[in-house]
Description:
Elements: E1 19-21, E2 27-29, E3 37-42, H1 49-60, H2 62-67, E4 70-76, H3 80-90, E5 95-98, H4 103-107, E6 111-116, E7 119-124, E8 128-131, E9 137-141, H5 149-156
Parallel strand pairs: 3-4, 4-5
Antiparallel strand pairs: 1-2, 3-8, 6-7, 8-9
Amino acid sequence: MAKEIELKLKEGDMAPIFSVATSGGGKISLADYLGQNVILYFYPKDDTPGCTKEACAFRDGFSEFKKKGAAVLGVSPDSVKSHDKFVEKFKLPFTLLADEDKKIANDYGVWGEKSFMGRKYMGVHRVTFLIAPDGKIKKIWPAVKPEEHADEVLAAL
């Protein structure tokens, strides 16, 4: 079971603005999405078991998210090159953000100490934010189960 982390942002807060390089060689800013719901999901690493399950679940539900007028954005500290391979391999129809300096993860409070098999290290916690059309955080999922998560998010739209 994913461990819930203590987040500094709360539902109702303004979502921190960012501008970042993306898969496919573009650059986007959160401001580009004002007026629509944004699903901003943080994940630790491209092409790892849990992250792949989560990305593929968002991929499989993508047409439903689009019908509801929501943009899906995945964020990890991986490079654009790594994201491009991940997108290509799993045919992901949404944009991945290359948060290489971990600025977005820090701004959203999802970068922190993790523990795996008794070893402690710093990493990205699997947390999802639903950002409303007005730029405020509508809902936060602080503990995500990769397989079921896309359905939970869809139900909240």
